[in-house]
């Protein structure tokens, strides 16, 4: 619960804080200055002509909040319960790999900032730090694990066992990246983080992955990651197998079609993340926010529906929540915070998101996360 009287968010920011970019574009500019073109371009860009990337962002402005007044918004409860865990607010950290290309402290800095602001942290398979290192750096905080399937599926099962042992609360299987999208900026910059040896934290510590190597060299590790991480044969039978290898809840990330959402429910999946991977996979696909309502309708409350792609500020998150998302994941904004200022930079991004989200919910006349689904959002 937060009390509006003790929590005059805007004035608190004007009085207390040192100057720091708040707006996404200013933050991106600061990151551009801090990074080499290869890493900066890898994070910023998306697939093809970046149609979907641009649409993800611009489509939010097609939706307008119609607020209610005189509802006594002096206290706000943003708690949400998802798959048996109660989280203080419906904002998560999206899984983003290879964080060391943005800052040397990488995922440790992000996970610590997330723990400080109570954002559940979804760790990517292709992290620079391992499952166990992140767990040790952030004891007691909520963590989920994003799994990239491996062509040698015993590696995927091994990672699933490790996250369960390390106390993670759920596994998010990403299904839209069975091969990498057509990313022209990376071709232009000749930049592949995996080829340069980033993102090995979970592979180089995995007993099944390491045992399968023919030789124990850096080249062999890179080659084997590349052979395993692209897995175009992935299909629903693999999901059933994963189900038999973990007792953790499984969510599928990358759902855009209502029929895939229905199939996920039929196959016993515990939740989905509506996402187009920030426009980084197939260019020309529907903006994530435009896909949300149809999927929420298809799911009809039977499993949680998380959301990402294009969320740039608190009011975007509020629109997604009002359209039926159970929680919203923040992507590129925190990566720019990391590039601009390490853990501190991420903290400022999360703090701003949280504060704007809370102010926006209250100003729309809503007091808790049950009411937010009734918030009126219209196209126009
Ligand atoms: C640099 C970068 C790396 C990413 N790595 C992963 C990843 O390892 N696994 C995954 O499921 N999604 C990954 N994503 C996608 C994010 O989880 C998320 O879907 C996307 O960033 C949302 O779009 P937005 O950042 O424009 O809001 C990555 C995104 C970026 C920008
Ligand atoms: O770049 C990405 O979007 C992504 O998901 C990824 C895939 C492999 C390695 C690093 C990141």
From TrEMBL:
Coiled coil: none
InterPro entries linked: Aldolase_TIM (IPR013785), Alpha-hydoxy_acid_DH_FMN (IPR012133), FMN-dep_DH (IPR000262), FMN_HAD (IPR037396), FMN_hydac_DH_AS (IPR008259)
Keyword tags: Oxidoreductase
Highest taxon of source: Bacteria
Domain FMN hydroxy acid dehydrogenase: 16-380
SUPFAM superfamilies associated with the record: FMN-linked oxidoreductases
Xref: Pfam families: FMN_dh
Cofactor: FMN
Family: Belongs to the FMN-dependent alpha-hydroxy acid dehydrogenase family.
Name of this protein: L-lactate oxidase
């Amino acid at each position: 619960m937060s009390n509006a009287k003790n929590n005059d968010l805007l004035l608190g920011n004007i009085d207390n804080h040192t100057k720091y970019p708040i707006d996404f574009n200013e933050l991106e500019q600061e990151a551009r200055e801090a990074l080499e073109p290869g890493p900066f371009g890898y994070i910023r860009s998306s697939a093809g002509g970046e149609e979907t990337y641009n649409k993800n962002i611009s489509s939010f402005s097609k939706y307008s909040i119609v607020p209610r007044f005189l509802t006594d918004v002096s206290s706000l409860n943003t708690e949400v319960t998802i798959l048996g865990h109660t989280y203080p607010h419906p904002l998560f950290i999206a899984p983003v790999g290879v964080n060391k290309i943005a800052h040397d402290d990488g995922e440790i800095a992000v996970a610590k900032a997330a723990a400080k602001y109570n954002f559940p942290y979804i760790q990517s398979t292709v992290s620079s730090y391992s499952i166990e290192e992140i767990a040790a750096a952030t004891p007691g905080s909520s963590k989920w694990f994003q799994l990239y399937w491996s062509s040698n599926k015993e590696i995927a099962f091994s990672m699933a066992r490790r996250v369960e042992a390390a106390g993670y609360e759920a596994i998010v299987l990403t299904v839209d990246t069975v091969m990498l999208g057509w990313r022209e900026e990376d071709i232009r910059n000749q930049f592949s983080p995996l080829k340069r040896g980033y993102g090995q934290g979970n592979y180089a510590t995995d007993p099944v992955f390491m045992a399968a190597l023919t030789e124990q060299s850096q080249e062999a590790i890179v080659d084997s990651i590349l052979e395993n991480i692209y897995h175009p044969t992935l299909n629903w039978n693999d999901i059933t197998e994963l189900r038999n290898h973990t007792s953790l809840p499984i969510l599928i990330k990358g759902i855009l079609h209502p029929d895939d959402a229905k199939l996920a429910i039929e196959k016993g999946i515990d939740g989905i993340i509506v996402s187009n991977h920030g426009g980084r996979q197939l260019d020309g696909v529907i903006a994530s926010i435009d896909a949300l309502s149809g999927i929420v309708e298809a799911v009809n409350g039977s499993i949680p529906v998380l959301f990402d792609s294009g969320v740039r500020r608190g009011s975007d998150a509020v629109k997604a929540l009002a359209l039926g998302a159970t929680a919203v994941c923040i992507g590129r904004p925190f990566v720019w915070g990391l590039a601009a200022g390490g853990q501190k930079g991420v903290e400022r991004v999360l703090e701003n998101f949280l504060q704007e989200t809370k102010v926006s919910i209250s100003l729309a006349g809503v007091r808790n996360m049950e009411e937010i689904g009734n918030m009126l959002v219209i196209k126009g």
